[in-house]
Amino acid sequence: MTDMPIDTAPRPDTSRSLWATAMLRLKRNKAAMASIVVLIVLAIAGAFGPLVAPHSYSEVYPEFVKVRPSLQPYPQAEQVIPAAESALRRARVDLGGIEVEDGKVRIPVSSDSRDLDPRISRYLDRSDVFSNAELTIDAADPKKGMMEASVQELYFIMGTDANGRDLFSRILISLRISLMIGALATAVALVIGVAYGATAGFVGGRIDNVMMRFVDVMYSLPFVFFVILLVVFFGRNLVLMFLAVGAVEWLDMARITRGQTLSLRRREFVQAAEAMGVSSGSIIKRHIIPNTAGTVIIYMTLLIPKVILLESFLSFLGLGVQEPLTSLGVLISEGAKNMRNAPFMLFYPAATMTVLLFALNFLGDGLRDALDPKDR
């Protein structure tokens, strides 16, 4: 009789936790994974884009107002000579034939009444089009001279707004502001709503009734009127936007968490904790809130686009962020006013908002499917 070899190699554990299964299912959802990539790209663009953008979001170019998007540098060839004539109009000199060659402009200047002043070159330097202007006065006749300046090349790949500011840079800063408001206001709603709803659902009884009646009273208050009052008393600033939006959106979070808590409080592990003498606060913190995390995360991904839309609506009404800062709602509002003669001012912010909202909603749908225990 021969001894059979005993397999002592460790066998892989095939069981997976709920979160491991959810992550595996989320990775199989192509729309959700693509949305994660899009959100990461938009978040990086909003966080670091304004730092590396070719123009500041607040820099104004008066000579490039509502210029169309172009991959070619401004000013274009036909714009250089009119820009030079416009810049030297106040210099009170006569201009000869203007020549433009190799990024340089040469302008013969003369005066009939007085000698030329070298300081008139400052008129070109003050322009958005020219730089390093120099005036060479004719030694034989100080009333004549030659002015030379470099033509600056400015790129506006998404055009400029009604004030002459780079639209691309303003979209980048608006992404930062909108995402920051959406994330922080959602965090405020998450903290207040989860704590409030879990406490009301676990304690129950009269305390639950009183707490939920307070939620009903808050629901009856008109949101826009509430924000207008805050703006009147405290002024417009980003902190106010976080408080105003987060102080209203926690109501839905509280109701959802309360409903989940009511079903969890009858579970065996909660009853066992109560039998062991664990305090109510510890049960809520260690057992109730962690077991509502799946539903809360799903609702959070759907709440962020809702908050961004609310902020855009308030900015559209003029109650949002103040200049020179901007948000997607402010840009869309400005674009709507100029959509006839400058449709790109509306198209690019609206397209950015659409991509952002679609990505957040697809991610929310993917998380809902991944965390749904009925589909496991």
Automatic annotation (TrEMBL):
Say if the entry is tagged with keyword Manganese.
no
Where the record annotates domain ABC transmembrane type-1, the positions are: 175-364
Statement: the UniProt record of this protein carries the keyword Cell inner membrane = yes
List where in the cell it is found: Cell inner membrane; Cell membrane
**Gene Ontology BP, a term:** transmembrane transport
Superkingdom of origin: Bacteria
For this protein, the record's Gene3D superfamilies field holds: MetI-like (1.10.3720.10)
Q: Which UniProt keywords apply?
A: Cell inner membrane, Cell membrane, Membrane, Peptide transport, Protein transport, Transmembrane, Transmembrane helix, Transport
Q: Which Pfam families match?
A: BPD_transp_1 (PF00528), OppC_N (PF12911)
Q: Give the similarity note.
A: Belongs to the binding-protein-dependent transport system permease family. OppBC subfamily.
- What name does the UniProt record give this protein? Oligopeptide transport system permease protein OppC
Give the originating organism: Cribrihabitans marinus
